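Repro case for the chain-ordering regression, as requested:
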Amino acid sequence: MGQKIDREQVEKVAKLARLDLSDGELTEFTGQLSSILEYIEKLNEIDTDSVEPLAHCLPVHNVFREDVVIPSLDVAAALKNAPASFDNHFKVPKVLDGGPGA
Amino acid sequence: MAESKYKIIIGLEIHVHLATKTKMFCGCELVYGGEPNTRVCPVCIGMPGVLPTMNKKAVEFATLAGLALNCEIPSFTKWDRKSYYYPDLPKNYQISQYDLPLCGSGFIEIPLEEGQTKNIRMIRAHLEEDAGKNTHTFGDFSAIDLNRAGSPLLEMVTEPDMNSGKEVRALAVELQRIVRFLGISEGDMQKGHMRFEPNVNLHIPKDGKIYKTPISEVKNLNSFKALERSVTYEARRQYAEFVEFGKTMEMGNKATFGWDDDNQCTVLQREKEEAHDYRYFPDPDLVPVEMSDEWLGEIKSRLCELPLQMQMRFVQDYKLSDYDAGVLTADRQTAEYFDATVKSGVDPKRVCNILTQTGLKLANEAGCKVAELGVSSDGLAELAKMVDASEISASASVTIFEEMTKSKGAPKATAEKLNLIQKSDAGEIESLIDQVIADNPKAVAEATSGSKKAKKSAGFLMGQVMQRSKGQANPKVVSEILNKKLSL
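-- result from build under test --
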């Protein structure tokens, strides 16, 4: 049985997660991730044809709040943990393309 | 004609801000233009260990929109995390809905010209949270305001069923009217309550084959004008590119553009479609939503007659022009005010004229809806009835309406106060006419001569009578008696 995940895929996942991995780390994690995936694959041995897909692990639904305003933090508290701030804004390295938008 | 050279294919993605009081997953107040970072809490600034809780109102608003757009409303939906790497949503993911959206497929009916309509199919609509606001102009850094982060957004996706910039605009305007009628969004374009992203390409018939141009997605348009123009511009640009370079979908199927409003053109942002690996997965912090029949029925009961249906009813039942009916159904309050007035048994056209000639202008000046000017629908109906009964002239009704908005008086009392009650008493009018005839023998002679000047002279005599009555004589009665006297 070959590797479950190849080096290229690990590189891609690392890039998506904004992780800068060294060559050694790539090799190491490719091996580790492959054995994890192999282990998870044991689940495929179970016949799930007659089992409904589970969207959430808790048997709970419809946990709502009413549309009522709760006081927010004051600005000083909101910015307290920020490494840098400017004029009541969070200050971050320049965002180049403005972000993909929500 | 350019139209025969190709067919434009357009699908639309729309984001609408819902008009809840608080955010999607926390109780921070939604305020437009508040001081930066004054409406934030540990949930919406993404502190570790916090738990989001669904805003019930937002779910109901989204469902209401789905019902108005004829969407299937599934009984079970859930939340997913979409990877996101920008600081305006600091959790590093956006809470959204991936495979089980709140609203399934449906359609929206949009008005075209001459009372025609077209159905545009909706693929889906789902709820998600908005990001915060970036400012890049303070210096060599970006400044983040998270007041908007976590606002409830309804994202809607249509099938590529539109075929012109006009149709895309019509859909956008209709959707704005619908969300406003339902009261689920203010739909204020200036405040960014509605954002549009058209996907445009062309089908070009040539040599018995259909060539398809690469799809352009134009991002983040927030005005109807920019939306329409960007689509028209893209069609022309793609056609030119096809003619010059033979560029088709096989040579790269999608690119992302922005709209440069100053230069009225689209600007390429990304040529190659990035492998959009959002890595959606179910959000473990949020439990699913189950829509029971009872709850759905309760939400359904909040639906109102939709604007286009109302507009078409006004045209059909009230014989208004499509234009007038469109003006009166621009917002729900005005439409219902007009409808209530007409339903008390007055001429719809009469009421329409009073509203379009003066009411809407006054409302605009006062910055409110015409129904809020202080004239009840009963008062307006009474005023319209006075015109129908020739107690006042049509032009006087406009003046009286304006005075009623100020003094809040009843129509009759206001008309009396302004001396605008028409005199229809034949005897009184006859004596005025006799005086005018006696005083103007020359004009009388001309009016009865059958010469070229006859019409003008008769008009002059009519004017004299109206003047002597201080404009209060019923012109119809005056004209009848005058014609009889002059044997015209």
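Ordering looks correct now. The first strand of chain A starts at residue 64 and ends at 65.
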